[in-house]
Sequence to fold (763 residues):
Amino acid sequence: MDFALDEDLRKRIEQLSQLGRSQIRPLGLEADRLGRPTPPDHPFFERLIRLGQGRTRWSPDSKGGPERGVAPRMGTSVVGLCMIEEISFWDRGVAASFPGPGLGDPPILSMGTLEQKRRFLGPFVHPDRPRWGSFAMTEPGAGSDVAGIQATARKDGRHWVLNGAKSFAANASRADWIVVFATVDRSLGRDGHRAFVVERGTPGLGNFVVERKMGLKAYESTSFTLEDCSVPQDNLLGGEAHYSGRAGFRGAMKSFNATRPMIAAMAVGIGRAALDEALSFSREQGLLDDPRVRDRLERIRRRLRVARLLCWRAAWLADRERPNVLEASMSKAVAPAVALEAASLGMEILGGVGARGDHLIEKLFRDVKAMVIVEGTGQIQRVIMARRLLGDGPRN
Amino acid sequence: MIDFELGDELALIRETARGFADDHLRPRDREFESGRAVAGEVHEAFREIGLGALELPEEFGGAGLGALARVLVLEELAAADAGAALALDPLGPALYPILELGGEKALESLARPLLQRPGARALLVSDRRDSLRVEGGAVSGEIPWVPADRVDLLVVLRPTGAVCVSEGIELDELRGAGLRAAGATGLKLAGAPICAAWDGAVGARRALARARLYIASLLLGVMRASAEFSREYALHRVAFGRPIAHHQALSFLIVDMATAVDGTRLLAWEAAWRLDRGDDAAEACATAFLEAAEQAMFVTPNGLQILGGHGFMQDYPVEKFMREARTLSLLFGGPDGAREDAGEQWAEPDDWAGDAGRESDGARLEA
Fold:
């Protein structure tokens, strides 16, 4: 039993916090003020690459085994979790704009052939410049219920032809490639799913629209369409053999599984930032003598600590390749709700100062709401947990 | 580095406690409650498995184990019967001021004789508001309820130290709201002579921290039992054509209850880990206590709710869990006392996250 972070990790967090103070938070505030994502040619992204960010977890020496070759820079999920919490403390929107394969990394790691890992993750091993990957599952009519996606894939000789629309994909318009999920037969549900790596410039991939959001403006959430988009058969993740049985769908769910605690940890970071704002303000204004204020701050701090421990546990299980579906959903169900409460309490304590709309606490209040939604809403997490704890009953 | 593995020794201790609770406590909880005591042969069985003296040093017949082992055992015992868990521990949390303030000498003079007298009980009370009068080498005053029918040694813990009395303790039997297996009395002291007194704010703080974690562990066991029992029930009780667990209004509630139990456990484990490292764990223990108190009052009334009318009847244990959760969290100053101590740190910005040297940078910037 150990709840301490080792020296090396603490150093890396300290480095991140310096970067956070000098660059990440100012960039996030700027993007929020200007109402647009940080442009891909911003020198900040070059700087991140020089600092060793933006890499894949895949290592070319790993012989292509599923998720074995974890790059030393990234380390375990627990390490990744602690780092992403720290970056999100400074600005979660900027964190999501970081170069790298992003949410496309896990499905390629778990489903991709060695050749596909070389082609698509290879450029992210030691990236020459800021590069992004993207992941597109959500559609205008299918969110948490991923089995309901409508985008179609039809085999045509040595190609697959994709048609459909995808929504809210992070960094999609600037990405080298997008992992796109589509179905070969809507009537098959999950069994019909296939994952494709659609490369930038593929004819039929287009109509990129960077959505206008309530918060988290520093990164792009992009919708796009696939119109007779012809993808080489070699870009079918895992190859045809992978999709005998239900592996295609399981591939998607596996990637969600690994990322839920990550999203939860980001929420903890935002919640910490909100608590700090509330605390600083309370201290400056002499509100800490008021037990009404102190008790509420205490509760938020305590609930954030619970949330963080739930995240750590879920990631720790993942690092040991132990089942963590229940624990991952617990962390995702708890952390964003607590973080929202933290930001809301911050608004309450700051009062009119928060309502002016030019204080960090107000931005955090807007930013944090997305965390309750992405990677499965709080409600969906409860559906998942209920299936684990109570069996397959509640499908209503 | 972060590690949630218990290890073989602790896992075995937990397994042993669980087995004992299943075999000896759970089947007889109502009998112990109405009899206001745990049967003699159960005391005997508990002594035999050696879990009673976990934290006592080995030279005193204990196992010399730490706070984490204690948390694990108390959760298991309380998941069967929290009152019995108190009754089975003759020293209870009174051990902590004896250890932290009195040291080995006090252990020898106060604890050892008590352990040799069958049925003897030591009792710890926290008197942060000075409601007891200490003057002229004697203690006077009243405590409206203590979970004991017999008190051989009373330890009164204050922020600056502790005093002990062993004579002149008057007990009036009460019905008690919960934990009746440990007894329930009103306690009166009319100039009870002090038999030992210790000064030391640091020791007192640590003793109170350990006492709070003790109660948090019992609360954890009670709420786990309530969550598990009501979950099982919901899987079998049918309404509107299916098990009630498969109606979403209940399934969401049940998973939230399970989450509350897990979160509380992680906080308790972290606080215990801090104590075992020798950290100043006052804030962590107060936090674990608060979370346990708050979540127990979320879980146990809902555990009853899931059983509907049956839950209100004493044929099922869920009403008992609810009473136990409420009464346990009143001990040692209750949630408000813990809030005071957990909120202490707001006086100066520090390590809110508490994970060994990692500070919240925003707070530090303001320092």
Observations:
- The first helix of chain A runs from residue 7 to 34.
- The beta strands of chain A are 133-136, 152-156, 159-170, 177-183, 193-199, 205-210, 221-232.
- Confidence is low (pLDDT under 50) at residues 64-74 of chain A.
